[in-house]
Specification:
Blueprint (H helix, E strand, L loop, with lengths): L4 H28 L5 H7 L7 H14 L6 H38 L6 H45 L6 H7 L1 H20 L4 H14 L3 H14 L4 H17 L3 H12 L9 H21 L2 H8 L2 H22 L6
């Protein structure tokens, strides 16, 4: 499956939304402990493109603001993000005043050399600082309320994008972050709303996403999880063996690949959408049978493939390789 630019941008938007939620939560916690600094605030929001909230605002505007095809939920999300950004910019200014002007003000107040006019100005400074404190406290309450609204709307976006083939994989890889926001029950309810069988369907679709990106090792691991959850699901069993066959093939283990391919073809799967996979396996069997006959290594490699320790090492190696490749290159598209 070819990953469209829109699908990738949707995932980037959700990813940045999670970052904004985490950072905003941290800002609120730091304020409660009187530890909120301007430098930390500037990492949360700025107008030069270096903060997570600025990036989210720009992403949202690009996708939704002037797009005729954007749904009302997406436009609603864009407005909420915009309001959070502008409120946060006000907070940033108040934090700056309190961090940089307040200490200088306190030094001046203690001086015995102030003239009457200067004392009047100092009084005005005092009023401004008190206002900055009040605005900061009230502004944080407003941002906190808007953040709660954003979390609800983000759930709507996740449901809206459930046909994005990159989404199940993203949800599975960011499961802890989503549970942190929605808690276990809320996250479970979200999966049940999005997918027919909840978590098991999520895992199955994530495995398909890995398969589409030709990450056969990771796909194999996830399809195996589904078969463990649903022992009587022939489709999941077939896909596990399909992924195992190609994972072994690309690991240069032809005997193991042939065994898995033959076992997959023996599974009774009554589904027309499995036909392309069956055809690929039939071709693989034909090619491997011919190759193994030439090389005469079938018996030796079959023995190695049946080793439990060997198979465990293969699974761990596949999983680690997929993670490293994703970190280095990001999702690959199958052409």
């Amino acid at each position: 499956m070819i990953s469209s630019n829109l699908e990738k941008k949707q995932i980037d938007l959700i990813k940045e939304s999670l970052s904004v939620h985490d950072f905003c939560t941290e800002v609120i916690a730091l304020y409660a402990k009187s530890q909120l600094s301007f430098s930390r605030m500037e990492e949360f929001v700025d107008d030069r493109g270096k903060s997570c909230l600025y990036r989210l605002k720009q992403m949202s505007h690009e996708l939704f603001r002037n797009a005729e095809e954007a749904t009302y939920r997406e436009k609603f999300y864009d407005i909420t993000v915009g309001y959070i950004f502008h409120e946060a910019m006000k907070l940033r200014e108040n934090v700056y005043q309190l961090e940089y002007y307040k200490p200088q003000y306190e030094t001046l107040v203690a001086s015995d050399e102030l003239t009457a006019l200067e004392k009047k100005v100092i009084h005005e400074f005092d009023v401004l600082i008190l206002k900055a404190r009040k605005r900061l406290k009230e502004g944080l309450k407003e941002v906190k309320m808007l953040l709660k609204d954003l979390v609800v709307q983000l759930k709507d976006l996740l449901k809206l994008y459930q046909t994005n083939y990159l989404l199940p994989r993203f949800i599975l890889e960011n499961e802890n972050a989503l549970i942190k926001i929605y808690h276990k029950k809320g996250f479970s309810d979200l999966l049940n709303d999005m997918y027919e069988h909840g978590r098991s369907t999520l895992i199955y679709k994530a495995a398909e996403s890995y398969l589409d990106s030709e990450h056969y090792g990771c796909a194999k691991l996830l399809f195996q999880k589904v078969t463990n959850m649903h022992h009587d699901d022939p489709k999941a069993r077939f896909m596990f063996l399909y992924a195992s066959a190609f994972a072994s093939y690309f690991k240069n283990r032809p005997a193991r690949a042939l065994c898995c391919a033959q076992e997959a073809l023996a599974v009774d799967v009554k589904s027309s959408d499995m036909q392309p996979y069956s055809q690929s396996l039939e071709q693989l069997v034909a090619d491997l049978s011919k190759d193994l006959k030439k090389r005469g290594k079938f018996k030796e490699e079959s023995k190695a493939a049946e080793s439990d320790d060997f198979e465990l090492l293969v699974f761990k190696s596949d999983q680690a390789a997929c993670r490293k490749q994703d970190q280095r290159e990001g999702p690959k598209s199958k052409t």
